[in-house]
Structures are given as structure tokens and as C-alpha cells.
Amino acid sequence: MLNTLGFDFDVESFYKLGGRIYNLTRLFNNKEGIKRRDDMLSPRFYTPRADTGWVIDREDFERMLDLYYTVRGWSIEGIPLPETLERLDLSGVM
Fold this sequence. Notes:
- The chain is mainly α.
- The two termini are 31 Å apart.
- The protein has a single domain (2-87), classed as Aldehyde Ferredoxin Oxidoreductase Protein, subunit A, domain 3.
- Strand 1 (2-4) and strand 2 (7-9) form a beta hairpin.
- It is built from three helices and two strands, in the order ββααα.
- Helix content is 45%, strand content 6%.
């Protein structure tokens, strides 16, 4: 049990709190027009580094973004799914 500012948190409730914050932020951003098209890396990541030649392939990035959204419980467009909001007690927020 973790006691922070007078609140008792176990590990599960601590992670749930973090998930609520992260998803509320995403919901706000979605409402302001932020979608998948805005989740991108700086163009410099798509050009080879001078010292190593390392580069991120755009198709690989899109696959990683799909996986990230799935792990987060978001749609393919980066919008939190109803079941994610329900799990985090946020279903009536937006």
C-alpha cells in the first residue's frame, strides 16, 4: 500500500489512476481534433543517421502505432474505446 498525500494506493489502483489521466488527456486532445495523423515522429527519424545509418521505416512505425493503440485500448484512429473508458470508470466523461 502506497500512501501519497493522504490517499492509499495499491499497485492496481495506482496504475488505474495513471490510465485515467492518460486517457482523459487523449480524450481532450481527440475533442480538439488530434487523431492518428498527428501521432508521428519528427522527419529526422526517417532519414538515415550519419554515424550509424540507422533509420525508422514508416511502415514499421505504423505497425508499432497499431500495436501501441491496441495495448492502450484505443481504436485504430487513436480514440479510447468504450470498453477502455468503462474499465477506467470514465464512460460518462465525454
